[in-house]
Amino acid sequence: MVVALTWDLLIIVFFALVVTYSLIIGRHEAVKVLVASHIAAFAAQGIGMGMMEGSVSAAPILQILGFAIGPTTIVMVKLVAFIGLLVAIAIHGGLSSDYEGESMLDTAIAAALGMATTAFLLLNLLAILGNSSPLSTTIADAPDLLPLFSQSTLAATLASLQSLWLILPAILLVGTSFL
C-alpha cells in the first residue's frame, strides 16, 4: 500500500492533532484556545488591512526608499501575526473558563471544541492564503486557492461550509455552558 502525501491527508492529520491536543488539555483550556483563535484571527486580519492601507498611502515614500509591500508580504505578515497572537493570547491572554466537576461529558465537549477549533483554524488559514477574510463570502472562489481546492475535496468542502464553521463555536460554547 502506497500512501501519497496529499492536502486531504494533511488536513486529516491536522484535525487529529488539534482534537487530540484538546482532549489532553481538557474542556477548560480548549475553550481558551477556541476564543484565542478567534481573537488572533481578527487581529491578524486587522494588521493586514492596516498594512494594505498604509502601503497605499505611503507608496511614494516606500518607492523612494526602494521598498515594496505586495500581497505576498501582507499574507506572510498576517500568517505570522495569526500564529504569534494565537500562542500569546492562549498562554498569556488572561482568558479563563471554569466549569464545575469533571466527567466523561467534558471529554466529549473537549473533542467537539477541538473539532470546531480545527475547522476555524483551517478556515482562517485558507482566508489568509486566499488574501481574504474569514467573514468574506469569496473564500471558495479565491483565485489563489482554486488549485488547492481542485486537489483537495476536504479543503473545498471546508470553504463551502464556511458559515457553519463560523457559527459552530458559538453554538458549542452556549450549548455546553448549560452542561
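The above is record 1. Record 2 follows with the same two-line structure.
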Amino acid sequence: MRIVERIILPVIILLVLLPATTALSSEEAINIVKLQVIETSENKDSLKAYRWQAPVLSAKEAYREPFEFDEPVWFFWIDDYPELQFAHPNRFVFVYNDEFINVLGATWYPENLSEGKLFYGGKRGIFERIMTFLRGLA
C-alpha cells in the first residue's frame, strides 16, 4: 500500500491535472489573435472580430463542409468587411493549445454565428466605412 500512496497516486494525480494546467486560456488566445492577425491586417480599423466562449472540436462555414479537429481549439471569426452583405472576404482563425495559429480565408459567416461574441470592432470613421464599402464592390 505504501508504494501506491507514495508513487502511483501522485503520478495519477499529476497526469490528470497536467492537461488542465497547460491549456491556453481564453485571454491568451485573444491576445494571440490581436497581435498576430488583427494588428497585422491592412483593414484593422474596419474589421470586426468574434470569439467563441469555449474551445471547439469543429467549426462550420455556412454552406460548406465543417472544419474538424483532434483536440479542442479556440475559434475566432474575423469579418473583414462588416458593411457588406452576403458572401464577402472573412477569416476563420483557430488557436491551438501550443499557440499555433491557423488562419483560413472564407466567404461566408460561421453557421453558429449567434454563439460568437464581438471582442474587436475596429476604429473607423465615415470615410473608412465608405472606402470599405467601395472596395467590396470592386
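The CA atoms of residues 2 and 8 lie 9 Å apart.
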